[in-house]
Design goal:
By secondary structure, this protein is α+β, with helices and mostly antiparallel strands. The chain is built from 2 helices and 3 strands; from the N terminus they run αββαβ. α1 runs antiparallel to α2.
């Protein structure tokens, strides 16, 4: 389980994290991983690692797997998106 400090999160964020934890073992079994980054305006942002980076099935996994599960289990979630950090140098 990812080391989330759940005291810092809203109830909805906690629900999202709990749902992500349900799907993580399946993604990890394929050499990847997914973590919760933030919830903003009822849109969940996640980060992927490992084999997920550059995977041709990432978009499908994000929308039809991770996103579908989160939107099904957490009321009010509008979308699940890949977090892309702002890399201003």
């Amino acid at each position: 389980m990812y080391n989330y400090n759940v005291m810092e999160y809203s109830e909805k964020e906690k629900q999202v994290i709990k749902t992500i934890e349900k799907i993580r073992p399946y993604i990890q079994a394929d050499g990847g991983d997914v973590t919760f980054i933030k919830l903003e305006d009822d849109i969940v942002y996640v980060s992927v690692m490992g084999a997920c980076i550059g995977c041709m099935a990432l978009e499908q996994t994000l929308k039809e797997g991770i996103g579908a599960l989160i939107m099904d289990e957490v009321e009010g979630i509008k979308d699940v998106r890949l977090f892309v950090p702002d890399l201003d140098f």
